[in-house]
Amino acid sequence: MADEALVVIDLQNDFCPGGALAVAGGDEIVPLVNDLIRHADHVVLTQDWHPAGHSSFASSHPGSQPFTMIDMPYGPQTLWPDHCIQGSLGSDFHSGLAWTKAELVIRKGFRPAIDSYSAFFENDRTTPTGLAAYLRERGIDTLTLVGLATDFCVAFSALDAVKHGFKTTVRLDACRGIDLNGSLETMLRRMRDAGVTLEDHLSD
Ligand code: VGL
Ligand code: ZN
Q1: Per the residue annotation, which of 16, 27, 48, 153 is the catalytic one?
Q2: Could you give the CA distance from residue 178 to residue 159 in angstroms, rounded to a whole number?
Q3: Residue-wise pLDDT tens digits, 96-134
Q4: Contacts with 111 (C-beta within 8 Å, 6 or more apart), sequence order
Q5: Residue 83 and residue 49: Cα distance in Å, rounded?
């Protein structure tokens, strides 16, 4: 039997309604994610974890507005409202999330000059978070991804997971998206093309 892990991406207050970078319906997935956690062999959580003044914040670039693009040394980067600042209430996991079973919390986005959507690589696409080696050393080769946001951190994580050779499923009914300039359609197509299994149990 393959060893499987559930990876819960960024289910944090700032990505839920009322948060600094709220994803529509972000909190609605909590009961289903808790169900999946209950049935999972292994659970890994990711936590977006930015220092104040992070380079992905529009507020760090005078004259720039959130949700616009900027060129960083590593390539184009979307600018966001200040969010998930280390230790803030917004960076906490949603209070309803049954997180205690998690065996690992992987924090990302803590380098001031690089954003990190993926649970595996930062946005320069070369700085690893350590997650792939951790999973491999544990003998885990099959992943199910859920969380926020479908078209950013979930999608980038799923694409990197298949790149690393993990058998990867995204449960779309346990995700919600931001959908910035068609990003949801684009990233669903990219995931499908890369060999990510997309499952939506609501439409079964
Ligand atoms: C995310 C934008 C900025 C995400 C994190 O979790 O999808 N999106 N930081
Ligand atoms: Zn972030």
Answers
A1: 153
A2: 17
A3: 999 999 999 999 999 999 999 999 999 999 999 999 999
A4: 122, 127
A5: 9
For the question of residue 10 being annotated catalytic, the response is: yes
To the query of whether residue 173 is one of the catalytic residues in this protein, the response is no
| SS3 at position 101 | helix
Of the candidates 27, 82, 84, 108, the residue annotated as catalytic is 108
Entry pTM: 0.97
Assign 60 to helix, strand or coil: helix
197-199 β-sheet, strand order: 104-108, 42-48, 3-9, 140-148, 167-176, 197-199
Is residue 1 over pLDDT 70?
no
> Hey, is 107 helix, strand or coil?
strand
Query: Per the structure block, which two tokens stand in for 183?
Result: 């990003």
Q: Is the peptide bond before 149 cis (omega within 30 degrees of 0)?
A: yes
- Report whether residue 158 contacts ligand 1, using a CB cutoff of 6 Å: no
Encode pLDDT of 74-83 as tens digits: 999 999 999 9
User: For ligand 1, is residue 8 a contact (CB within 6 Å)?
Assistant: no
CA distance 196 to 144: 10
Cα 123 to ligand 1 centre (Å): 11
Helices (H), 86-194: 131-137, 155-163, 183-194
The length of the chain in residues reads 204
pLDDT, tens digit, for every residue of 56-79?
A: 999 999 999 999 999 999 999 999
d(CA 12, CA 95): 9
